Amino acid sequence: MISKNLTAASTKAIILGILKQGNSYGYLIIKKIKKMSGGKMEYSDGMLYPVLHRLEKDGLIQSNWTMSEDTRPRKYYEITEAGKQALLEEKEQWLQVNTVLEKLWNLKPDTNY
Amino acid sequence: MISKNLTAASTKAIILGILKQGNSYGYLIIKKIKKMSGGKMEYSDGMLYPVLHRLEKDGLIQSNWTMSEDTRPRKYYEITEAGKQALLEEKEQWLQVNTVLEKLWNLKPDTNY
DNA sequence: TCAATATACTTTGTAATTCTATGTATATAG
DNA sequence: CTATATACATAGAATTACAAAGTATATTGA
Fold it and tell me: DSSP letter at B72?
């Protein structure tokens, strides 16, 4: 299981990244994440839905209910332009921290930092 | 500036990683992180010291005061065996999330997740 | 000489956040 | 016909991070 902190730090980028692939809805997003992570990341609905609401409030995604005869009503989310921009920023920050960690993992002792 | 969440998610690995390089003390650790990140990550003392105390309480690091005639008293920290183990676990978790994010960043549209 | 800044560590309290738990409801599989 | 899966929502308990304030010494430079 992935730690709380790491989950929190990656949630925004993961959701935006998934929606950049194509529109989706809460329940399916949870399953996609589980599948993508090989079961290592598992969001409860109570964890995910509030995040979706916040992202929508912040204008990074937008929703619309779809009614179909085949399935139950679903609230589909779509990434906005602001959301795509936010995703780039998330990526940049992640890579920055990743760079620091890679230095530490690969470093020989007594490197001068 | 790196977001709060990302900072929180990486703090433990970064501190343990730095101490694996060699013993150090709070004030210096703050400066090392700043240097390693090119100024992007900047911990306040109020942020770092409580983390050091927690890591010590958890047995991942241990401290001893050093008195010197040249400098002021410093509390040096040293990583423990348990700390080295914890660092490996942190690394593994980070890489796991990193794998998911890389998939999302590189994915072509309509990949089946 | 003395003021400002850098070094060095500590802790309290609160502000913010998280997510567990609970609720609603329908569809389907066995 | 019931258990499970699908689908979304939210209140509030519980946690937690960290800004702010405190203590104290060393050094720089005006």
Answer: -
